[in-house]
Specification:
2 copies of one chain form a homodimer.
Chain A (H helix, E strand, L loop, with lengths): L4 H22 L6 H7 L7 H4 L3 H25 L5 H9 L2 H5 L6 H10 L4 H18 L7 H24 L3 H15 L5
The first copy, chain A, binds a DNA duplex through helix 1 and helix 3.
Chain lengths: 191, 191
DNA sequence: ATTATCTATAGATCTATAGATAATGC
DNA sequence: ATTATCTATAGATCTATAGATAATGC
């Protein structure tokens, strides 16, 4: 059944959208093409009219989601010129981040899986992480540029680690501790 | 081919050993039972004489590897009574940790995958993480017990995040930055 | 413990068709 | 407006591989 050019583009976006959610929720490997297409309201076979392979989709989704993280971070920073780091920490180290992996940071969901891979997806993640360090380096406190850059690395490590561990743990109390203790420790008010 | 009781136990240990390495290197899901048995020098079918299922193996491996992390940490702490935290940081935040996932901390390899699961493996990871926070709380600086406990959470987040990101990134320079900048920042000498 | 086999499921390919688009004709 | 062409889709099918089981052998 043929579909209009417009509908075709719409279907493609739908596939990218649901894949983005499912990949972040369940990982690349545990998410099947058939499952993605079903969630998009389409049939399995139709997938290959839009993408060459699952890997191809994974790459496009990765690029889009990483771009989104960078944009979101910049929005938050710009909208809170007095306390940009606090604003970012409040956003990133939140229960919302932890409880909705399908709608949150790609890295917090997929870094480990991607680390074990090679190729375009891994490179995209690499560049994305580097960009996040750069963003953090500009809003983090510190007397010199080197100090601030160093703090960019440590801050990203702590943020990512906290969300990952807050998700790993089963009790709400432990989870909150990873999340909010780290958030408070990273806040410029503290240091 | 029947095998002695002793050899049977030996084979079982071999399976647990290679599975521990392969799981940490490639993740639970991407490691097949046939692959594990081949690495152990046995045939696929023989697996089910030792374990009920792959999930059963994953649980036993997880328990053993988590126990090993706790033991290792305690050894390091005991062997450096003057600077236990520095000793632990030097061990954990090292290139060796980053470059040999198959021989390093289970959590740094598998937390994300386990976070997406439910059941016994997840609970085991939960308890293990909680135990690591407890260990850290006793060697971390701080004026009160609460402060030290808080520092236990933040320290574990930063350690785990740094190793995970140091593995994710492709360039050695970025990787070293995550690793050593975080190590230095967490050192009691600094704070 | 080995070997062969079973069943389920994954990614990917193929064929026919619906129906949108482009070319043609009035 | 009609006709021809093009193409995205559905749905069946293919191939490979996974975990698991059964039969066999020592």
């Amino acid at each position: 059944m043929r579909v209009s050019r417009e509908k075709f583009a719409e279907n493609r976006e739908k596939i990218l959208g649901v894949a983005g959610v499912l990949f972040r929720e369940k990982g690349f490997e545990s998410t099947g093409v058939a499952e993605i297409m079903k969630a998009a309201g389409l049939t399995h076979g139709g997938f290959y009219g839009h993408f060459q392979s699952k890997e191809d989709l994974a790459l496009e989704v990765s690029r889009a989601l990483i771009e989104r993280v960078k944009i979101r971070w910049n929005e938050i920073i710009t909208s809170a010129p007095n306390a940009p780091l606090d604003a970012l920490l409040n956003h990133y180290l939140s229960r919302c981040s932890v409880d909705d992996p399908g709608g949150s940071c790609v890295f917090a969901s997929l870094v480990q899986e991607v680390s074990r891979s090679q190729g375009a997806v891994r490179s995209t993640f690499n560049d994305g992480l580097s960009a996040l360090v750069d963003i953090l380096s500009e809003i983090v406190p510190g007397d010199s540029a080197q100090e601030r850059r160093a703090k960019g690395f440590t801050t990203l490590s702590a943020m990512m680690g906290a969300v990952i561990l807050a998700r790993a743990v089963e009790s709400r109390e432990l989870s909150d501790n990873f999340l909010f203790t780290t958030r408070d420790a990273l806040s410029p008010a503290k240091s």
